[in-house]
Amino acid sequence: MLSTIYALLFYVATILIVVGVALKVRRYAATPAPLKIPTTPAPTTSGGVVLRMLREVIFFESLFKSNKWIWLFGWTFHMALWLVIIRHLRYTIPGNSPFWLDFIQPFGKYAGFAMVLGLAGLWARRFLVDRVRYISSPSDHLILVLLIAIGLSGLTMKFVAPTDIVAVKVFMSGLWTFQINTLPTNPFLLVHLGLVIVLMIIFPISKLLHAPGLFFSPSRNQADNPREQRHIAPWAAELEK
Fold it and tell me: How far is 31 from 47, CA to CA, in rounded Å?
């Protein structure tokens, strides 16, 4: 019964996150940008915009220029999170893992500590910096608590109370073919998976959606070429005809 409940919750959460993010991305793409408003200094070519977006996504360039301490915690959390997520593919891919996934396992294991440390720094900022504390809403704190709890429960399973990883892999990989196998009853595993399900459900309606939203930001994805090329929104072009 417990395995069935968690399997159904994962299916529901997957549908919600995929459909929710798709609808949000569609809304972002359809939102008009009537003005040329790139944050300067900005590239003047499309190739330059691509390079700028890569630097923003990989290195958090604008945040680095703005505040080094926030950049340190934010970049550490995000890069560690990516490594942890990639490492977890081992538990969802049916059959043997590819060699590169086995290679990063030790790095992903300890990236969990970096992830929690980065989150702790970002959460402390919402208490210690007056202007940030003033604009912080309860949802901001709850999301950080949720992410920290996911990290700590995962680290607890790895270093304090290990669970049956083989059984976990059988359960997770079986979901791809709608097979509900037995899920271990390790309490830390159940808490960890439950928190991940909650995260998947709230992702499309939370500030965590800044991940895909960055690519639709006019201040980042526009070239600074208003003299060379007139910028006009599609709806405005229709009015001129």
Answer: 23
| Tens digit of each residue's pLDDT (9 = 90 or more) over 113-154 | 999 999 999 999 999 999 999 999 999 999 999 999 999 999
CB count within 10 Å of CB 203 equals 19
Q: Extract the tokens encoding 100.
A: 């590169």
Reading the block at residue 102, the tokens are 């086995």
Chain centroid to Cα 228, Å, comes to 36
119 Cβ partners below 8 Å, 6+ apart? 73, 77, 144, 147, 148, 151
| Cβ atoms of 83 and 118 closer than 8 Å | no
Instruction: Return the domain boundaries, the chain.
Output: 2-10+39-223
Whats the size of the chain, residue-wise? 241
Q: Which tokens in the block code for residue 56?
A: 């923003």
**Looking at this protein, which amino acid is placed at residue 6?**
Y
- pTM here is 0.90
Distances (CA, A) of 19 to 64, 85, 176, 189, 200: 33, 20, 18, 27, 11
Dist CA 106 CA 84 (whole Å) = 10
Contact 38, 224 (CB under 8 A): yes
Residue 111 structure tokens: 């990236």
Q: Which CATH class is domain 2-10+39-223?
A: mainly alpha
Report the distance separating Cα 196 and Cα 193, nearest Å: 5
Distance CA 217, CA 106 (A): 36
**For 31-75, how does the pLDDT look when each residue is reduced to its tens digit (9 = 90+)?**
888 788 898 889 999 999 999 999 999 999 999 999 999 999 999
Say which DSSP state 95 is in.
Answer: S
